[in-house]
Design brief:
Keywords: Signal. By secondary structure, this protein is an alpha/beta fold. The chain has twelve helices and 13 strands. The chain is globular and about 60 Å long. About 35% of the residues are buried.
Amino acid sequence: MRNISKLLCFVFFLVVFGCNQKESSKNQETILKGSAIIYVDETLTPIIEDQVAVFESNYDAKIKLVSKSESETVNSLFKQKGSIAILSRDLTSEELKVFKQRNINPKVTPFATDAIAFISNKNTKDSIVELKDVISFMQGKATPSIKGLVFDNLNSSTVRYINEIAGIKSVPEKGVFSFKTNDEVIKYVSENDGIIGVIGVNWLSQPKPSMKKYIDNVNTLRVKDLKGSQSYLPTQNDIAEKKYPLARDLYIINCQGYSGLGMGFASFVGGDIGQRIILKSGLLPIRIPTRNFIITKSQNDEN
């Protein structure tokens, strides 16, 4: 009987100790201190790497970035591999229901607008691609102006975005190729004529040093909208004026459920410093950082 009592006490001790350790671990993390894992849509990796680098240099925090396709990034939340994700779309109503069933209320922070860019080899004569031709090609129709489209990943946000515009659920079997990363798409297009690459524009504005020679051998194509006759580039100005037809908003999805680094990082990215980083990268911040000017009177000024 005594042995049974001792065993029960020991089990009770392990349970209490385990719970205390878990609670202690959570308490060690604050909005500006501790460590966290953030899953990020691979098409957005460069700008988020910049944000993390500055955030870590300012605070006692360590963030591990895990770059995956959009589908894998969303699944990381559902499978509870991670509780913070960065996407080029908001959660759907069906996805929100899943979290509500778990008594989790995701905090969604929009922080920037970027764009999907079309690129071609420098040897390609055309500098403009019509969006209607891209749609026709994705619908499996013969399109003389497009020989092939190359995406980073069939589960990526770029494929999902173009599929939605084309009104299709899956890509055609012919003429559409995919790799694993945006860098691979850029490299392939730079070495092959007549192919159009589909990538996140941030990979062009902030390339790795090793990618510069490939970036120099591709052109960013102007895109002609479905309605107008004008064509536009995915520049900060054309995105801000809502002229470029393939712009998309970016979001931080925080499902931690407590005041942790997810909240702190989202506040940082949405704050003045984070928004200046967005502005400098060539993307469009959700709010334009203010600039203060001090006007002084020169000695040469007339009284």
